[in-house]
């Protein structure tokens, strides 16, 4: 498993909510650019093909984006409405480095309008994906506002949590802070990617007390990239200074241990059987 991963969040415009082909073309041009930056994984925003269109898996989206994933040897997370078994799901489809569909996440926490207006069926599982650089968990927009989502993913081993979103005002105002808390309390990197009209939804943050915001942008078309130090993450999950027991508390020794702590280390202390 790799010690680091280069991630690229593709913040893109949605030119026409009814024209999947046009939106797919926009996404592909930006994914091409992400590939030239040697991305290990690229993330697209929620419903990047449009609010008023849907497709199947496999379908034109997975075939076209799969070709780019294969060309550049990168994973891609492509979120769109997927028709399957007579249901409509708000899904994030994960394509592997060879362009094949590796898995799919179906949005669990629907926005209040999604079921009655769009006929969306909620998902019921929070899968994680073991990639060659680490373990990936996925969520979509409203999922991010429920702490149970990230907690469940972290307990299943997620080191990176990718959140595709179109969160509107005023909910997007605390979005960066939500990501920081999710990252810190779960000792995971959070990659959030939104559409081009969102001011705060695209950012990459780490689980550190200081220097947590690795990259962040405002509205517009952007490729937001970062190299995630997974080796450091794994080390701090396993070997936090807090796991060294001082002879007595309070003491100078205890103060020195606390001064060395750069992140939470709560994963080992969680007791889900009691919750």
Structure description:
- There is one protein chain.
- With 275 residues, the protein is of the alpha/beta class.
- The protein has a single domain, classed as 4-Layer Sandwich (Nitrilase/N-carbamoyl-D-aminoacid amidohydrolase).
- Helix content is 27%, strand content 25%.
- It is built from 7 helices and 12 strands.
- It has helices spanning 20-36, 60-72, 114-118, 147-155, 175-186, 230-238, 252-260; strands at 4-11, 41-43, 75-84, 87-95, 101-106, 128-130, 135-140, 160-164, 189-193, 203-205, 213-216, 222-229.
- The strands form 2 sheets. Strands 5-4-3-2-1-12 form a 6-stranded mixed sheet. Strands 6-7-8-9-10-11 form a 6-stranded mixed sheet, covered by helices on one side.
- The two termini are 32 Å apart.
Please provide a brief summary of the model.
With 275 residues, this protein is α/β, with parallel strands linked by helices.
Summary tags:
275 residues, alpha/beta, Nitrilase/N-carbamoyl-D-aminoacid amidohydrolase, six-stranded mixed β-sheet, 7 helices, globular
